[in-house]
Backbone:
């Protein structure tokens, strides 16, 4: 039985790729056939991810399940396609499946030019996303990330909106820099550890037995931190994000902001902290300060945005600050809070980017000062958008998973540096201000002179093609929000042994330094 | 020399060991004969014959089981020495030559020039490259290297009606002559130092690599020998285009016919690296303490120079030349690492193969797009390529992506292996520079992709730029070749399989 599940895990990556190859090979396929093939490619990973969730029963609680190893020819360097899921990667794997399905479904019914090529790139991206979270091998973890990243650049450049050429160039250079730094960090980790394998489990065993020297740990962790930090838009390396998301086509923005960006945080939690505990502890204060930069400075910048998509881009940068803050706590509560927030934020931000495009189709502008009074024509859209904004603020209330993530992180921050809770909570207020103001300006309030004419014209409420992906995201968000233990139990089980170990190592090294 | 020595030397004349080179020479002459014999309308067949025979030779070399019998034995009285890495290089050069012949067929269609001589010279150069990497003696090295260089003097200025080509030919002639002189002077100094009977370990065979190695081991601080070594390395640095001997590259690459630019970029560079690896591995071992810092500085300068100068380059042939300099830098990184990490040599070979596949794919697209003027391939000529010629666009993107080292293409794995080797050799600051170089390179590779793929923003009223020339039709074999290159690049990125075994764990 387990074997079948391992094959299914492989299929979750292979199926979108295979569909992409079909689309590439069959250039003159009919439109409906193209959509059909693409739909299979998006549906399969989502279905498989839910199925594997029900099947997840590892030998050690939170440990890896559905393990398979395939050799690709680099085994002499210890690189083997080693797939598996553990308590931390499973929720993100499901997130990738769900957001992928929503983004894919939305893209299929969008009126993008050269639809077949657009879907092809999205499918490649989807395959990369599933691969990132299913990889146990550190090399393939990086490889799949890049596989998903490259289509993003092309999609921004070809199908993007205003400023797309500049945005594509900037995003490419920034993210390549981040990726190269993290690759360098991963290779140093491999070489320094003396392991003959890029396998995460082997690396963990070896580094638990013989940790690196403190200086080496600090340097490697710094490489990973800044590499991953650039990829996750850590302040002050965030400038690519609002620009990129502002220009990106909606499905690409959904997948990148929703899922791919979580790569860096996932890497820090799954690789950085467990393998380099004292390095993580040493750099945590620096990370915390930068994270506060994300929360407060970017929060203030978000306040003054007029462009809806730019605002969403900045707000997603801001929420990454909470995630970094959780990582900086180097504690079990903090890290599990980060995982919950990553899932919740991924679903929310994907929903918001999609709804922003829905609004654009009706208003023909992203400028929030020009739109107004849209609620009369589009009540459903208004309801969905308000729900998404409330969720993204982290409103305390049942069914909003973002709240659980942020709340847990605040608890961890209290233990780490109590005063930091104050600016962090201030950030929540900031996001409430800009979030609610966006709802108010777009949907309520009187329309401006120029917009009144358009409002009188024929504006339809959300069609089912738009409602289905939105509902999909909302339902999953509600499930996680109402019953967060579905996620957190596995996460805690997976992280518990790691953090016990980290505490031991760190306290040992503190003792020795005191002596 | 008595009869016995002569007969012993004669016994080492294993002609069967170098049958591919001999066959190439025969084929080269045969082409000229065929040109005389065949009626004019059959002349288009001659290049095809050349390609077919080379494919046969390649198949023979790849499947050659008995070749390994000669490994490690000095052949032809110590002139040649074969090994598993020379075998890889011979296959590499044959493959390059086949592709250059194909590109030549495409490019010459647009010219009214003598044709057969082109293929003749390409074959001669290829044979010389294959002998160069097997050389075990400085005479062999110099003769092979000069054969290559003299051949290139002619080929670089082959499109003789174009003034830029003539300029390129002249520059290559003068600077090539200079570098040969430097190399020769270095060889003479080494010969003189090692032949000095007053020194321990002196030898009468002082051009023979093993004898020279013995001498250097006994006299690692002989100033004359060190000066000779430096001059020899300089002469080879000219071939691979390493800073500060890179100055000829942009002009020559732009002026030379595009197939010859490809041949220079791939073949000539690989030949330089082949002989550099031989010398560092087998001759200058006692001098590594002097050589390594020097090579390290050259590596850093080469990577930075290539990438920085390419940033604002609009002519794609110059761009290929300048980015080729940076690739030479990454390869040098592997060469430096190979002193302490033996498998790094395999990483260099792997990188060379990925570069062959990617660069040839790009050059194939360029050759197809080139006007009869040939040297004016600006980036703007690629505007909207993806819309007008989607096939060429995809091939170009895969080639450029692989050269930029973008996963999941083969170039990424090549860079990854080089970087791992460099990490193991603890060359941290060089790695830092290499990473900066990779990020810089994204800028100009991306600019090229942008021109080909992203619709150029046209303000209303401004008409689209006129497309340069009517595109020639791509033949079936042309498509097959390009698809082969692109598929190999993609597949090697995902699945390296036996290739790493063949190249690295030899």
Residues:
């Amino acid at each position: 039985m387990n074997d079948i599940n391992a094959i299914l895990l492989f299929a979750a990556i292979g199926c979108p790729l295979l569909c992409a190859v079909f689309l590439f090979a069959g250039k003159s396929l009919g439109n409906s056939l193209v959509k059909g093939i693409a739909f299979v490619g998006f549906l399969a990973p989502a279905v498989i991810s839910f199925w594997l969730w029900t099947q997840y029963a590892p030998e050690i609680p939170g440990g890896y399940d559905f393990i398979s190893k395939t050799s690709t020819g680099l085994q002499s360097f210890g690189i083997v396609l080693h797939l598996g899921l553990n308590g931390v990667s499973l929720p993100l794997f499901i997130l990738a499946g769900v957001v992928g399905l929503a983004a894919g479904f939305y893209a299929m019914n969008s009126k993008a030019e050269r639809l077949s090529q657009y879907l092809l790139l999205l499918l490649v991206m989807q395959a990369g996303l599933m691969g990132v979270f299913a990889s146990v091998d550190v090399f393939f973890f990086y490889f799949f990330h890049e596989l998903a990243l490259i289509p993003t650049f092309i999609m921004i450049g070809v199908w993007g909106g205003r400023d797309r050429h500049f945005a594509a160039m900037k995003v490419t250079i920034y993210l390549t820099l981040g990726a190269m730094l993290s690759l360098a960090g991963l290779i140093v980790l491999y070489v320094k550890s003396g392991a003959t394998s890029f396998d995460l489990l082997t690396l963990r065993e070896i580094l638990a037995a013989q940790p690196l020297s403190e200086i080496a740990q600090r340097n490697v962790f710094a490489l990973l931190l800044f590499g991953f930090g650039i990829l996750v838009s850590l302040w002050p390396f965030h400038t690519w994000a609002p620009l990129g998301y502002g220009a990106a086509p909606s499905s690409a923005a959904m997948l990148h902001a929703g899922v791919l960006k979580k790569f860096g945080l996932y890497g820090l939690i799954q690789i950085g902290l467990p393998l380099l505990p004292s390095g993580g502890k040493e750099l945590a204060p620096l990370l915390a300060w930068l994270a506060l930069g994300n929360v407060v400075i970017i929060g203030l910048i978000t306040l003054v945005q007029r462009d809806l998509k730019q605002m969403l881009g900045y707000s997603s940068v801001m929420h990454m600050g909470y995630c970094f803050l959780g990582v900086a706590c180097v504690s079990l509560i903090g890290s599990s809070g980060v995982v919950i927030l990553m899932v919740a934020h991924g679903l929310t931000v994907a929903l918001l980017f999609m709804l922003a495009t829905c609004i654009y189709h009706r208003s023909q502008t992203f400028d929030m000062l020009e739109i107004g009074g849209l609620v009369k024509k589009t009540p459903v859209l208004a309801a969905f958008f308000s729900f998404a904004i409330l969720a993204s603020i982290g409103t305390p209330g049942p069914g909003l998973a973002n709240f659980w993530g942020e709340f847990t992180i605040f608890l961890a921050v209290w233990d780490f540096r109590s005063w930091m809770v104050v600016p962090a909570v201030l950030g929540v207020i900031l996001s409430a201000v800009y979030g609610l103001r966006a709802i108010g300006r777009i949907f309520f309030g009187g329309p401006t002179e120029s917009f009144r004419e358009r409002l009188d014209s024929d504006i339809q409420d959300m069609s089912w093609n738009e409602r289905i992906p939105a509902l999909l995201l909302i339902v999953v968000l509600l499930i996680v929000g109402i019953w967060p233990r579905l996620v957190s139990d596995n996460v805690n089980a997976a992280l518990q042994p790691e953090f016990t170990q980290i505490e031991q190592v760190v306290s040992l090294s503190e003792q020795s330094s005191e002596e | 020399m008595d009869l016995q020595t002569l007969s012993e030397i004669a016994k080492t004349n294993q002609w069967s060991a170098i049958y591919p080179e001999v066959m190439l020479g025969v084929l080269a002459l045969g082409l000229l004969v065929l040109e005389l014999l065949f009626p004019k309308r059959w002349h288009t067949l001659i290049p095809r014959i050349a390609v077919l025979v080379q494919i046969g030779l390649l198949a023979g070399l790849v499947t050659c089981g008995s070749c390994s019998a000669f490994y490690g034995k000095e052949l032809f009285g110590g002139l040649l020495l074969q090994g598993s890495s020379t075998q890889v290089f011979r296959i590499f050069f044959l493959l390059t030559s086949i592709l250059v012949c194909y590109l030549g067929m495409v490019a010459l269609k647009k010219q009214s020039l003598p044709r057969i001589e082109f293929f003749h010279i390409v074959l001669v150069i290829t044979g010389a490259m294959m002998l160069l990497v097997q050389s075990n003696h400085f005479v062999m090295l110099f003769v092979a290297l000069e054969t290559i260089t003299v051949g290139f003097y002619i080929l670089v200025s082959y499109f003789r009606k174009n003034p830029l080509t003539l300029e390129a030919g002249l520059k290559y002639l003068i600077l090539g002559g200079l570098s040969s002189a430097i190399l020769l002077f270095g060889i003479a100094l080494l010969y003189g130092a090692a032949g000095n009977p007053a020194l321990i370990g002196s030898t009468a065979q002082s051009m023979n690599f093993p004898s020279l190695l013995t001498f250097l081991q006994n006299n690692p601080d002989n100033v004359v020998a060190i000066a000779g070594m430096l001059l020899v390395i300089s002469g080879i640095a000219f071939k691979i285009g390493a800073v500060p001997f890179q100055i000829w590259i942009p002009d020559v690459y732009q002026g030379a016919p595009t197939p010859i630019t490809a041949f220079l970029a791939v073949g000539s560079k690989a030949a330089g690296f082949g002989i550099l690896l031989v010398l560092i591995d087998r001759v200058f071992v006692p001098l590594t303490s002097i050589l390594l810092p020097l090579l390290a500085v050259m590596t850093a300068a080469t990577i930075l120079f290539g990438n920085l100068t390419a940033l604002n380059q609009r002519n794609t042939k110059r761009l290929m030349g300048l980015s080729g300099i940076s690739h030479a830098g990454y390869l040098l990184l592997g060469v430096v690492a190979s002193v302490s990490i033996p498998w790094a040599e395999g990483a260099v070979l792997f990188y060379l193969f990925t570069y062959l596949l990617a660069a040839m794919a790009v050059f194939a697209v360029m050759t197809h797009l080139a006007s009869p003027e040939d040297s004016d391939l600006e980036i703007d000529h690629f505007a909207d390529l993806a819309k007008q010629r989607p096939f060429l666009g995809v091939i170009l993107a895969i080639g450029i992506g692989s050269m930029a080292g973008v996963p999941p293409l083969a170039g990424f794995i090549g860079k990854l292996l080089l970087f791992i080797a460099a990490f193991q050799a603890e060359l941290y600051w060089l790695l830092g520079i290499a990473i900066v170089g990779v990020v810089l390179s994204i800028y100009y590779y991306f600019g090229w992709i942008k021109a080909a793929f992203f619709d150029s923003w046209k303000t209303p009223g401004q008409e689209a730029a006129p497309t340069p020339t009517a595109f020639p039709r791509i033949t079936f074999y042309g498509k097959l070749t390009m698809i082969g290159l692109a598929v190999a690049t993609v597949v090697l990125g995902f699945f390296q399989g036996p290739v790493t075994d063949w190249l690295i764990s030899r």
The mean pLDDT of chain A is 83.
